[in-house]
Write a structure and sequence with these properties.
The protein is mainly beta. The protein contains 1 helix and 10 strands. It has a single domain, classed as Lipopolysaccharide (LPS) transport protein A like domain (lipopolysaccharide transport protein A fold, Sandwich). A hairpin with a 2-residue loop joins strand 7 and strand 8. Component of the lipopolysaccharide transport and assembly complex.
Amino acid sequence: MRCVKAILAAAMLGASLPAMALPEDSEQPIRIQADTARLDERRNVAVYTGDVIITQGSMRLTGQEVTLTTDADGAVTKVVSKGSPATFVQTPQPGQTPVNGRGRTIEYHATDETVVMIDNAHLEQDGNTFQGDYVSYDVARQVVDAGRTAGAQGTGQQRIEMVIQPRRRNEPATNE
């Protein structure tokens, strides 16, 4: 029963990521691979450990430990993946190249549709990259913020690095 509820909690992950995904991703089955799964019904938390891989359509999330937090109705409010590194890949629209993210921690905040990569963070699409101590991507607004994490005080990466590829001639802007 616990395993079934933990799987159902993970299924809500797919329902919370459609703004960043191919339209058909949310209609695909969610597949979870992990060494262990634990559901804490009182706290509305499911924890998967041991080489965790969660896939749904074009979305793939990996980490050594993935924690899903849900609200009282079972909707996912936060996903935290920790690894060395944790990784995230998803194709945003048909015909576009995948967005790749990595960091020691990846957080997805469903309520404000943001993905935050922390500690050796890296976000890449089409050769355009953002690297820093943290990289935050606001899915709804399509805004990337990068920098040092609060309180880093000289630890970690000191400056961000961005690589922006030139737009090819006759190529439309991607802000649609």
